[in-house]
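Reminder: ligand-aware prediction takes two inputs, not one.
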Amino acid sequence: MDLFDIETTDDAWSEQLDEGSFHLHGFVVEEADNLLEQVANVAEESPFRHLVTPGGKRMSVAMTNCGEYGWVSDRRGYRYQSTDPLSGRKWPEMPTIFRETALKAAESAGYPGFTPDVALINEYRPGTRLTPHQDKDEQDRTSPIVSISLGVPAVFLWGGLQRGGRNRRIPVRHGDVLVWGGPDRFRFHGIATLKEYLHPLTGDRRINITFRRTGLVDTQGVAPH
Ligand code: MD6
Ligand code: FE
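Here is what comes back for the chain with MD6:
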């Protein structure tokens, strides 16, 4: 596979996965440099870190956040909170390019007016994976999820609404966006173990930006579940 062949805007096309979910191929290729620069800015203020699951396992994916809330995990549970636990300060502001890109992607998948209040940023390195799960820490159940893939390609595991079903293996490349909402909002999803690969913009890393609307109003966040 030649990286430089697939990263052209001529290859931007939309593929419907299920009733409420779309794979927007190459949708953010042109914005990728800018997005990655903003990721680096966020990480300077709130660095990538390996969170611990409520069960006590260190997650292999490194994470940070920007926006009004951030998604965190520790022994007490999964939750959103308005401050970075590392610093005690507010998460960095969500860059305008993030908001604009999320809005545009959601709209082109049939979800107009998407105003995310959190961008979770995931950093994957070779050997890193994310086991299938549902995103259900949000109070807003109507907004979609918008997930941008940058850098090293990966295999997105696309499951059903029940745990343990078969997963479809969806290759996601630099510049691709997945949008899922409506009847697909609570589908199980994950990322297969990342392979060794070198991308001209990110080296051996895959960067994922996941946009959500938490629907929270309490700036202290919600109780862990
Ligand atoms: C991805 N990440 O990296 C998808 N969900 O493409 C997620 O689905 C995710 O990283 C919930 C919490 C953290 C995550
Ligand atoms: Fe998720």
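The radius of gyration is 16 Å. Residues 133, 135, 189 surround fe (iii) ion (ligand 2) (CB under 6 Å). We will return to this case in the review session.
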